[in-house]
Amino acid sequence: MNASRFSSALREHARETIESLGSVDIVVGVPCYQSAAFLTHVLKTIAKGIEMHYPDSKSLIMVSDGGSTDDTREIARRTEINSFNIEKLVTIYRGLPGKGSGLRAVFEAANFLKAKAIAVFDSDLKSINPSWIKSMLQPVFQGYDFVTPHYRRYKLDGTITNTIAYNLTRALFGLKIRQPIGGDFGISPSLAKHYLDQDVWETDVAKFGIDIYMTTTAIINGYKICQSRLGPKIHGHKDPAGDLGPMFRQVVGTIFTLMDTYESFWKEVKESHEVPILGEVVLEEPPSFEIDRESLVEYFRLGFGNFESIWRNILEERDLEVYKTLVKSNGNDDFRLPIESWVRTVYRYAAAYQVTPRQRMKIFDTMIPLYYARVASMINELQEKNQKECEKHFDEDAIVFEKMKGYLLNIWKKGA
C-alpha cells in the first residue's frame, strides 16, 4: 500500500467544516463502525455531559466512521444536539479500516482546532452517562496528558485485558494501568500531536492496536498519566469463543511489536508502580453474562490437532505436556491451565515473534487456541468468586508475570 495515500485521515468536506470552526476548547471523538444500535444514546449523553460540566466551552463532537453499511451515519446526522456551543461533525475517515484510523482523524481535527482537551469514547457504550465526560476531560484540564478508564467490569468481560494486556503493561512497562485497552480516554493536545507525528498509521495500530499503542507510548515518553473511575462498563458484548480472534491478533501483535521497539526501556524496568485513580468509587455492579466455554475448549482441541508440531517448537516441554493433559480432560470444571504455564506461553510467543518476522501472522494463528484455553480455565477459576475476589485473582496473575520477567529476559531474541 502506498503510505502517502493516507497522509491525512480527514476527507475534504471534513477539513472544510473544521476550518470553518476556527478553534474549539473541547473535542470529543466517537470512532464507529456499524454502530446504529447505540450511537444516538452515546451522542446525546456526550452532549449532555458537555452542557452540564462545560457549558461555556466551545466544543466539537466528531463521529469518525469506518464506512458503515448500516444506518450509523444517517442516525448520527439525525441525532439533534441542541446547544449553541456544541458542533457536530459526521465523516468517513480515510486510511486502513479500524479504530486507529478513526482516532487519527479526531486527533487531526483537535490539532487543527487547537483544542485544550480531547476525549474519545467507544460507540457501543450502553453505560455511558454525563459524568463520564467530566471524568475523562477534567484531569486533562488539570494537567494530565493521558487519562485511562477505571471501570467496574463483569469478571468475564475484557478477557484480552485480563489474560495479557494488563499483565504485560504492568510487567514490561512498570505501571499498574488496569484498563490499558479500555477504549475510552482523555488526551492532552501535546500527546495527540505526538501520536499524529508517529509513523504507525499503516500498521495494526490503525486497526485495533490503537488503545495499547496510545497507553504504551504515553508511558515510554514520560507523559503524565492517571486513571479515572467510570463505574460499570456495559457495551456490545463480544464472546471470546466467537469473534475476538482478529482483535487478539491486532492487540497482542501491537504489544509484541512495541516490545521490540522499546526493548531498551522495558529491560530496565524492575517493578511496577501505582497510577493515580481519580474520582469517587462507584458501587454499582455490572450485569453478568455467559461465555460459551465448551466452544472455547473445542477450538483449543482443534488447535492442538492442527498446531501440535508448531507448539512443540515454541513451548517448553513441560507446558506442552500441560496442554496435552487439558486436551484429554472433559473440558468442564476440571479444565485448569496453571498461570505459570500461561506466562511462559506468552513470553515464549513474544520471543518467537521477534525472530520470525515473515511468519508473524501464522504464529498468531497458532497462539489463539492457547488463549482460548486460558479463557476457559479462567471461567472455571472465577466461577465461585465475587467481584472483589476476582480483582484479587487478576492482581495475583499480574504479579506472576512480573516475577517471571527474568524468564523472558533469558529467552528474548534467542529463537524460543
UniProtKB/TrEMBL annotation:
Keywords: Glycosyltransferase, Magnesium, Transferase. Residues 28-160 form the Glycosyltransferase 2-like domain. SUPFAM superfamilies: Nucleotide-diphospho-sugar transferases (SSF53448). Its cofactor is Mg(2+). Pfam families: Glycos_transf_2. One of its GO terms (molecular function) is glycosyltransferase activity. InterPro entries: Glyco_trans_2-like (IPR001173), Glycosyltransferase_2 (IPR050256), Nucleotide-diphossugar_trans (IPR029044). It comes from the Bacteria. PANTHER family: GLUCOSYL-3-PHOSPHOGLYCERATE SYNTHASE, UNDECAPRENYL-PHOSPHATE 4-DEOXY-4-FORMAMIDO-L-ARABINOSE TRANSFERASE-RELATED. Belongs to the glycosyltransferase 2 family. This is Glycosyltransferase 2-like domain-containing protein.
